[in-house]
Amino acid sequence: MDKKNLNAGHRKRIRQKLLKNGEEAFFDYELIELLLTFSIPFRDVKPIAKNLISTFDDLKGVLGAAPDELMKIKGIGENSVALIQLLKAINSRYLREMCKEFNNLKSPYLLTEFAKSKISDAKRENYLLIFLDSKGNLIECEIFDHGTPKDIKVSVNAIVSRCYKYDASYLALAHNHPSGDCNPSTADINFTKKLNEALKYNEIELSDHIIVSQYSSYSMKIHNIF
Known about the structure:
Layout: H1 3-21, H2 28-36, H3 46-56, H4 59-64, H5 67-70, H6 78-102, H7 108-119, E1 125-132, E2 138-147, H8 156-165, E3 170-176, H9 186-201, E4 205-212, E5 217-219
Parallel strand pairs: 3-4
Antiparallel strand pairs: 1-2, 1-3, 4-5
Helix pairs in contact: 2-3, 6-7, 8-9
């Protein structure tokens, strides 16, 4: 049997394995391997998949990698990068819809996962505003500000104004620490307390302020910061 047919047989087996046993039966590199079969025809993609995991540490690292970083990996071209970015976008959209369905984005776990899907891999610090209705349903979310920790400026009054625009009963705030250390700074804590008081005055509840990175998170609500 020639190499082309061997690859075709292997690809069919791993597809059937996924359909039969689900993702729990796979190592991270095997999931990436299967994904790459849809963008790289007639080639053994296992070494490429293992290289991706080795370079970016894990599956989340691969999905969060910038396109130009992915293109540096031997064997990865534009089609594969587009496919990886598409998977990340679909996952983010799916999580957003799931949060709507469960009606409990106020829960720290779902809020953290939602925030991670949006900003955890950003190279600069981003503030994400998540507007919720009286039942905790997601109304809208938006990146409010971004930059380096030194130049980012977040206005309490501007945030309250955005809450009124969306008629939000709850606001969840999240921002990322590109350094990976999710412990809040003194400025983070003081700002959160100031925002909480301003929201209370306007009869809006601060659901949480989550700090996220690619590998960790910190909930100010859980730690009783406000």
